[in-house]
Amino acid sequence: MTIKIVGKFKTLKSMVKLAGVAGKWRRGENHYQFRANTGAVLNWWKSTGTVTFQGPEEPKAHLKAAFLKHPLKIGP
Fold first, then answer.
1. What is the mean pLDDT of residues 62-73?
2. CA distance 29 to 62
3. 3-state SS string over the chain?
4. What pLDDT, on a 0 to 100 scale, did the predictor assign at position 33?
5. pLDDT at site 68
6. Helix crossing, 57-68 with 9-19: angle to 10°?
7. Using CA atoms, how far apart are residues 75 and 36, in angstroms rounded to an integer?
8. Fold entry, domain 3-68
């Protein structure tokens, strides 16, 4: 399942904050990246709206589940 968040970075940042996972944001050349203190990583490409998750399996699954619970999620 491809996760898409169409819109502004501010919306994505709010969704991650409401997920309750601590970490820090980085801005790359073509995307934004959230690195959780647990080792999980969320990447978002504004041009396509695509969201991906990386990192150790358990922290990655936790971040993804917490992120997807939020009602601001839009897209397929």
1. 80
2. 27
3. CCEECCCCHHHHHHHHHHHCCCEEEEECCCCEEEEECCCCEEEEECCCCEEEEECCHHHHHHHHHHHHCCCCCCCC
4. 97
5. 87
6. 110
7. 23
8. TATA-Binding Protein (3.30.310)
